[in-house]
Request: fold
Amino acid sequence: MDSKRLVEFAWLGSSGLEQYAILLVRVSIGLFFAISGANKLVAAGGTKPVYDRLVQAKIPFPHQMAYFVSGVGFVGGSSLTVGFLSSPACVALLIDMTVAVVTDALSTTPKGLSPLNWLDDSLYLPEVLYVLSFIWLICSGPGRFSADYWLAGKLLK
Reply:
């Protein structure tokens, strides 16, 4: 690789690798949510911690919502993993994580921080990073290596 291409890569990245980055992020986050949701739905007492957090956050119908949230994680994560209905899955998981940030995660941020330190602590939360990843995946699309890409090719011919 010559020095010009190396500098160009360092400054601009490589659009040729973009599809692999989308695949890596989509599958990794999808698997995380699918496995997490499945464990909550299948394991004995798996929804109990979710239920407890929902009660503490004063979310209505905590028992039903614990199953709903776990189901969204499993179905949305599974869908995202294979790249089928990726944008709707990202929207559902984005809403799920936004509610988690507002009702639970921000309560762990220490009180009395300067705005800059509060922002630093907030951006450190995994839920916030998931929200940002879902926004990126909605904007980038599911990528070339997805069921959505394959279906769009078949349906739009």
